[in-house]
Amino acid sequence: MKKIILFFLIGMMSMAMMGCSGEKNQTASANKQNETIEKETSVNTGSGKLLGAMEPQEALEYMKKTPDLIVVEVNEPKWKLRNGITGAMHTYTEMEQRYNEIPPNRPVILHCGAGVVAVEAYEILQQKRPDIPELSYIAGKPPVEEYNKWLEENKNHD
Length: 158
Fold this sequence. Notes:
Blueprint: H1 2-41, E1 49-54, H2 56-65, E2 70-73, E3 89-90, H3 95-98, E4 108-111, H4 117-128, E5 134-138, H5 144-154
Parallel strand pairs: 1-5, 2-3, 2-4, 4-5
């Protein structure tokens, strides 16, 4: 009986160790995949530059320095930001049907409430709108208050 229990415990420990190393391999694989996506999405496609994900603070600086920028909120209607970015377009989660509403030949930054929905909209625009000279999205909570304050302070400087 002791041998059976010992054999069982050794087997369980082996499986647990394999599971942990598999988890590490999966994490390493996921990290490698994210690095590949980042490299692929921050390249110049010839007609437009795919900037990929931007952290909120990086996005804020980009938004301040980019003339003619189109900001597009892509939340579902029920998640629309109550106090969103001034002047932002709202395509909600209908980017597949509404991508042509975005003005041509202008840089575009996409956002939602937390940076999740924006990824799908980014992928759609990558394929459907090669005329966009720079395409990016905010990976996280958009800097709404900071950008709106900056817009207000700088609206008379144009």
